[in-house]
Amino acid sequence: xxxxxxxxxxxxxxxxxxxxxxxxxxxxxxxxxxxxxxxxxxxxxxxxxxxxxxxxxxxxxxxxxxxxxxxxxxxxxxxxxxxxxxxxxxxxxxxxxxxxxxxxxxxxxxxxxxxxxxxxxxxxxxxxxxxxxxxx
Length: 136
Fold this sequence. Notes:
mainly alpha, 0% strand, 5 helices
């Protein structure tokens, strides 16, 4: 009768040899101190003031509390218009480039035409540059 030796990584490797299983030490959890907001402040606004602040907060993609807090502390609030559309375009260019790379690696195409892809990418870079200039 032949008994096959245990394979590498088998859970019975050490038990078959009479060696106790090593204890697996759990990794220590890295805890970060979170600053909790523990003060509640009630504010009264006129209806039109509240609507104006709420619309500004929505435009800045912030909630009401965060917007009012940043405004009160004179922190800069930057609103970037057009960025999602440009990022969508850059992602599409990346997908196209990945598809061309895959086809080249498969041998289905040899010399892909990249002039249109270069033009799209340069247009996206110009738009990103314009947004960066507006923000600074």
